[in-house]
């Protein structure tokens, strides 16, 4: 008589990895965010890690559509760059390989000349 051992539970599939901002990327983004909050331009933010993109959304007020989205798409690393700043209407304001250079578009856009 042979004793059958129960079949092991099938391995559950690994959840898909999510894209996240690393410490240095968040440092650069939050430095800019802090300056704009101090100027009264921005008031809230949200971070959304997804399977193919991480999104840092910037809001003027809570419960609004984001003014800007800072996106990280690692699949675009070899092409036009994995970082992008997207405007409220979905237009790409700047894209590139260096996050700090991409963020300059927001600093220039929000700093008003003194007349």
Structure report:
With 115 residues, the chain is α+β, with helices and mostly antiparallel strands. It is 24% helix and 23% strand. It has one domain (23-110). It has helices at 23-38, 99-110; strands spanning 44-49, 54-59, 68-72, 83-86, 92-96. A hairpin with an 8-residue loop joins strand 2 and strand 3. Helix 1 (23-38) runs parallel beside helix 2. The mean pLDDT is 84.
Could you say which structural class the secondary elements and strand pairing correspond to? alpha+beta
In order across it, which strands form the biggest sheet? Answer: 1-2-3-4-5
Strand content: 15-25%
Question: Between the first and last Cα atoms, what is the distance in angstroms?
Answer: 95 Å
Number of domains: 1
State the main characteristics.
115 residues; alpha+beta; 5-stranded antiparallel beta sheet; 24% helix; 23% strand; elongated
